[in-house]
Amino acid sequence: MEIYLIRHGESEGNRAAKLQGCEDFDLTTKGKKQAVKLGKYFSTVKLDYLYSSDLARAYETAKALEKYQSVQTIASKEFREIHLGPLEGKTREQIYEEYPEVKNKNLLQSGLAGTETDEQITARCRHFYKTIRNIKENEKAAVVSHGGFLTIFLMYLLAGEQWNTLHRPFQINNTGVTKLSWREDRLSIHYINQHHHLESIE
């Protein structure tokens, strides 16, 4: 099996340097161009499944990819970004002014009331893992999601339910692609954050 993990194109929230979480933002004009480039890049890859977060920035990106495929996008809130509660829609400067206690914390794991807990994130990672491990050996699937959730999921793959005790070193750009595969129970990470399909518009 081959699994492609894909971050959405540039959103209005990205452009405004806001933490988006589960707040909905559309793609920017640049983000739409990125999504088109992504779709064309995947035109030579026959997908058997195409999953997406149900948030607009991811779903719009998936639909651009879908145009070059013979499958329809399956959208689910299970693939959403980490829920950031009172931090959503704010810049880091605004957050540090309102919540100075989180200044030296990972904002995806701030512990503030109303934010998604590590336990809830772990449960979503577990569900995500089961979903993609059900893909058959000769099939290919893509999942369009969000930078925070995808980097945490990569940590989950490597460290299991202890992911939250370790430094998370990954960075994924808009429409960055990560390719995974399994042979029996052995995971292979072919590449992380490949985005050379954007070279002509960056």
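(ticket continues) Second input and output from the same batch:
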Amino acid sequence: MKNIFLLFGMLILACTTSSAQFREDPILNLQNEDKNFLNWGYYLGFNQYDFQFEYKNDIGRDILVEKSFGFNVGLIGEMRINEFLDARFEPGLLYTSRNLGFPGFTTQADAIREVRSTYIRFPLLIKASTRRIGNWKPFITGGVYTSMNLGSKEDSLDDNSSGEFRMKKNVYGYELGFGIDFYTEYFKFSPSIRGVFALTDELVPDEDPNSPWTGNINAMRTRGIFINFTFE
């Protein structure tokens, strides 16, 4: 996670220094960009997803999560509320992969479960911006989302005893983030960093209530970090 924040900081620094956005009297680009009632755009980015586990009993052996980087892509529809507030709908596609390490097993085939997920996300957000300063404008954003996990395997008849880790298809949660709008000569470029937190339990437990994989899990929820690059 530290690497993500470092990369984001270096990106912001590169953008600001290379385009001289912070000059005292810059030439203002796209002066009417934020005055339209409706705006459209798209975003690209990457993510790092994790799991948060709640256990029924504290046995001193947690499930390990090996995280990796995934990617995000989506569209943006924005409705202007006033000078400082906008409502945004950001439907998108997200891919991520995680490896789970379960304690107490002697073989890798039993101990490791690879969880590949493809989510179709539907976030509804509020974006709160400061007053524009030259060709840049900081903002914070937050809201709720619903998503469908196409790789959930929720309806599979197999479970971990057959090597199949199952999750629920529908997920609900919220996200919070911040970023900066940069007004270039031809478009508005907005890098942002988001924290994503599921509210619903995503685990489909094994058929055996005493399963060594899921028997001690009370709830499992996704959490993650996004870095998005928006073009409007």
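Agent notes: The beta strands are 38-55, 64-67, 69-80, 85-89, 92-101, 112-129, 136-149, 170-183, 188-198, 217-231. The CA atoms of residues 41 and 232 lie 4 Å apart. Closing as not reproducible unless the customer responds.
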